[in-house]
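Ticket reopened. Same input as before:
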Amino acid sequence: MSDNMKLPEFPRNMFDFANKDKHIHDAKFETKPIGYFKDAWLRFRKNKSAVVAAVLIVLLALFAIIVPYVSNYDVTFRDGYYKTVLPKSSLFSSLGIWNGAKVQRETQAGYDYFNAIGVETGRDVILDVKSQTVDANGITYYSLLIDSYYKVGYTYVNLSEDEYLALQEYQDSTGIQIIYPLPETYRTNFVMGNKGASFWYLLEDDSATSDGKAVLDENGDYIPNYIATSNKEQAGYTSLRIAGDDGGEDGNTWYVYGQRNQSGYKVRVDYYEYFIYKNNFEPSFFFGTNIYGQDIFTCLAAGARLSFLLAISVSFINFLIGAIYGAIEGYYGGAIDISMERVSDVLASVPFIVVATLFQMHLADEVGVLGSLLFAFVLTGWVSMAHRVRMQFYRFKRQEYILAARTLGASDQRLIFKHIFPNAIGTIITGSVLAIPGVIFTESILSYLNIVNLETSSLTSIGTMLANGQGYLNTYPHIILFPALFISILMISFNLFGNGLRDAFNPSLRGADE
Amino acid sequence: MGKYIVKRILLMFLTLFIIMTMCFILIKMLPLPAIREMGRDVNLILAKREQMGYNRPLLVQYFLFLKSVILHWDWGVGEQMYEALNVWDVLLQKLPYTISVNLYSILLAIPLGLGFGIYAALKKNKWQDHVVSTVVVVFISVPSYVYAFIVQYLLCYKFGWFPLTLESLDTAAFFSGRMIRSMMPAIMSLGFGVVAGLTRYTRAELSEVLTSDFMLLARTKGLTKAQATYRHALRNAMVVILPMIIGEFIGILVGSLIIEKIFAIPGVGSLYIYAINVRDYNFFMALTVFYTFIGLASGIVIDISYGIIDPRIRMGSRK
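Engineering reply: fixed in the latest deploy. New output:
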């Protein structure tokens, strides 16, 4: 007999019943319950790169939604003079970057041409002379930093009587010179067309074959070469006159500002100011313009908006079809599953480009280019979603809780929607989100290859913009740079975001590639 | 195994037949484009149309089409492009360009991708791994045409290392240095994505194998880390990686439409885009079948290769 058994006697009155006079209940949880989505959110939040990616996607989406409303331009805007101008932002231009300027190699004639525009308008076209070299043949070359906006210079416009008067009135009220005297240069009028409007100075050799070099006076200034007349108000011009146009002593040197022709008046305008007069804002293109003179910033936003809309609707429709189809396949299994799998197998085997092409050929005239593209995406796109849902159904339908629910008399519908679907929701959301970048990418390729032509007067797409810029990649890389950058950032963000979502919804799949 | 393969191949031809039928009917429902005046050739094409029963009922046409394809391997003649030339001959002519560009790019990409992947897996969760993984995400996400623009702008225009367009066969032999040099931009643009994909795949597979129990056993029995990795881990990882590489090799027949367009490579992709733009239905039909067939065949080859590489995988058996 061990010592343990020989316990001392404890007096009974030393003990007391616990909770003698209360009923014991389960204590209510003090913390908030963490549901499925909360749980996923907590995991998602820890994934820094996915959060950054999500923020980027939101920013890009906001860009696509907001910019077309607030921009000065729209997709229909085309300016014949500001073609391929470089990106310019008023915020940065004073720092010497993003100022719409580019270094250009020019001869003496080119130097004279751009410098003269600066002298006459008072806005320097040549921002900086980088270097000046003389080659073996004795020809001087300049390396000039040239402002792509100011270099447009002057142009001739034909105005009707009313427009002509209105423009003069605008000049009088604002004091801004827009109409400049017409020059007499031969080259100007007969050889160079509108571009020749900037030759307001005397040329060394004023013929069709001239190299365009200017004659300078003893001070190194240009010698003006305007058409002059004795009639001050020739062609009805009563408005501002440029400096130096004071009539002279013999009263025979008033410069001519307008010429009457069949349709009205031919006048020479400073295009920068004329643009402001026409549009009420200064020409400044944040991402520059393309070869049609469209604002790339606005076009990109409009194209991105189109892509987003298309991708989200495709993703949503595919989700609906795929979820229902996959649920039926997965839930019922057997012969239904096999026959339905055959159908989706065949559809999935058709190369997408064939589907897109056939839909374009058949439906584009009836439901529009965009509509037929949407159909094409939907026709084959839902298959992968159905496949995902089917897999999930196979995973869950044999589990005990389903059997329990079935024993309790739950209907098929209830089992599908109440008991299995909620388990599959994570995979479905991930799949739907990851389908979006795929659609955007494919759409850009199809419109780039011109299989789908999304370019109309008021519509554009990222692929179209890339295709338009391809021939100008060497000279104007900015046309391609911004759309390419946009789609690259979008793709990277979506991939990171999708991975984050997958890890958050299915922690067991972390790191695995679907 | 043999039974399974036969079953898969029969199923493939059934799928191919269904798709071919759908495409044929959909194409025939489109208005037939007029033939451009090309002198003698018009009569040739018209005779061919007569032979193919163009003004007879749809089913008869399809029957005649199938008959000429199966018995004579005759896919018709070009009507809007390569007039009166045999479609299949033109396709065969274009194939070498597509194959060589894609072949070079994956031959270049496989060692790089495997190398980076193995390196990242061995350095798992160290900074080297993070660098490789981050770069891989970027390179996988960025569309191939963006690489093409970058390569074209920097290497062709700015540095002038490579010519802008492909050398023609008249001036450079197919496997000459000049030809390969002129293919380099396209090869590189295609390669980035493949390298990144392969790196990610290799890293994921290998790092999973490296943590398994038999690796511990290999180390306890006295193998060095290098020996264990090479003899045991890599071989097991290859079971999954190799089918992917095989899939890439089959994909070289299809090529990339957009890269061929950007670098003006006269390959199958360019032919397809051209056929769509000028609406040549014979070419379109033949290329559609070609693409579909390659897609289906690569699926089968990949599945079967799993069974051959890894004897543990039983084909076609029910679980």
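The interface with chain A takes residues 15-16, 18-19, 22-23, 26-27, 29-30, 137-138, 140-143, 145-146, 149, 152-153, 157, 200-201, 204, 257-258, 261-262, 272-273, 276-277, 279, 284, 288, 291-292, 295-296 of chain B (CB under 8 Å). Chain B is about 75% helix and 0% strand. Please confirm and we'll close it.
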